[in-house]
Amino acid sequence: MNRAAQRNPFKKILFMLSCPVFLATCCVYAQLPTPRFDDGTVNLGAMKGETGHWNSGVGNLSENFVEMDGAYLVHPEEIDKVAPFRPWAKKIVQERLATLGRDDPHPRCMPNGGPRQFHTPWGLEIVHDRSSERILVMSGGANRSWREIWLDGREHPDLETYTLTFFGHSVGHWEGDTLVVDTIGYNERFWFARRPSGMPHTDQLHLIERISRPNHDTLHYEVAIDDPGAYTRPWTAAWDVPWTSFHMTEYFCQDNNVDLEHIVGPQ
Amino acid sequence: MDNYFKKCCLRYIGLLFSLGLAFPASSHHSFPAQYDAQKPITLNGYLIKLEWRNPHVYFYLEIEEEGGFEEWAFEMGSPIAMERNGWNRNSVAVGDILEVEGSLARDGSNLVNANSVVLVESGRRLFAGSSRDD
Question: Looking at this predicted complex, what is its ipTM?
Answer without folding.
Answer: 0.79
